[in-house]
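Entry 14. Structure prediction run on the chain below.
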Amino acid sequence: MSDQRYLPDDEYTREFEARVTSADEADRTVVLDGTYFYKEGGGQPADHGSLSWNDGSARVVDVRQDHGEIRHTLEGDLPDPGTTIHAELDWERRYAHMRYHTAQHVVSKVVLDEFGASTAGNRIHADRARIDFEPAHFDAEDLRTIERLSNDLIERDLPVEKALRSRDALEAETPEGRTNLDLIPDHVDPLRAVTIGDVDVCPCGGTHVDSLGELGRIEIVDRTSKGADVDRIEFVLVDAD
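Output returned:
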């Protein structure tokens, strides 16, 4: 199992050193003994960045998990197993994902509380995010309400805390409809919980900021129907007024 060093609450590290434990020439991937690169999953894209060592360098262009191993796809040289590398994350991309993933939690909680609609899916980008809700049929006034209540929470600059919690405790505290814990295998215990002040708690392995004040302001830019009882909201983050 690869050590995901950013868990549970070290998302702000931008550079690190690690040792290559395996390298695959065929698919141009390496596995490190520990990594701060986020692997694609949970609607959040993989981190990008770079690796360098004594006689080589490469760009990290994808990161995925394969049977517990975090595989970094490289463009450039391929280091040999046993090599100590210096890694740098593409921080602008990583921090944008942290902001948008945290904002997704805010909007999802507002919609659940206000309209009783659960998050059916989401996708984070560096410049926007989308969330699918069900059951949902939002009109223009609903969208204004979601935007206003989300920004009200952001203006409170609530702390965003990340910690490992026992599965039983987290199940007891997570509101019904907030997430589908049944999709997480029973053997995964403890779970990593993301808690926003006193308003939300949710199991999540994604990267997040430390306080809502880092988000700026949410603007909803689109709503589309994605089928029976499913509405998609797309939003962007802009600087606070």
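The longest strand covers residues 56-66.
Filed with the rest of this week's runs.
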